[in-house]
Amino acid sequence: MKAILRNIDVACEKGLPLCQDTGIHIFFVKGNLKLIESFAEFEEAIRNGVRKATEEVPLRPNAVHPITRKNPGNNIGVRMPYINYVPTDDPWLEITAFPKGAGSENMSFMKMLTPSQGLKGIKEFVLDAAIKSGGKPCTPTVIGVGIGGTSDIAMHIAKEALLRPIGERHPEKEIAELEDELLRAINETGIGPMGLGGKTTVLDVHVEYAYCHTASLPVAVNTQCWTGRRASAKIYEDGRVEETEG
Q1: DSSP letters of 164-218?
Q2: For the chain, how many structural domains are there in total?
Q3: By the 8 A CB rule, do 12 and 18 touch?
Q4: Percent of the chain, pLDDT > 70?
Q5: pTM listed for this prediction
Q6: Together in a domain, 85 and 53
Q7: Which domain does 208 fall in, by range?
Q8: pLDDT single digits (tens) 190-203
């Protein structure tokens, strides 16, 4: 843990990335989508931002063709960066950059439970996923859990759950209690920082859910490494921009 904290200090002092794996680039765009005059131009602006950051920060060029493994060298490719849209009636548009490293993303799990497995089955699946992951996702991590919907919805909301600040509980009491129980159970495994043993395997567990089919119980786990990198900016109708560090 001391080495992790020192790493953060050095990164700040030298203006360098926290980790050599600067991830692939996921964006969440939330707010009044009417403020986007042209989605084609908007998405091209995001691509240009990723291209520029890859060259100037620099970011490691991680995005490759999944079959040929050809690397364009700029983190730009088919459906990458990937942009998620969440429409609201708010008078602003919030853009969140959410780079996702392979160490954590590779420790993603999804399972179609039967409704009869219920809450007990959900708890067992999430705990088993954490144990199978061990220190591979660069523990201590934040674990996002998506329950319900369909297979793709469950994984989507599991990733969305990672956007919530550490320590912030779900507004529904039953879900908040589940988050606390899973947090305690995973930390009791003793996996510890970087899998070397200790009391802190996860920094938090966040759960989101969606209504699902009466015959289904999808559950997904998406993990974020300890760096938890993200940054957001809100653009208001009057042109004001409010930046928020992740």
Answers
A1: SPTTPPPSSHHHHHHHHHHHHHHHTT---GGGS--S-SEEEEEEEEE---TT-EE
A2: 2
A3: no
A4: 99
A5: 0.94
A6: yes
A7: 103-224
A8: 999 999 999 999 99
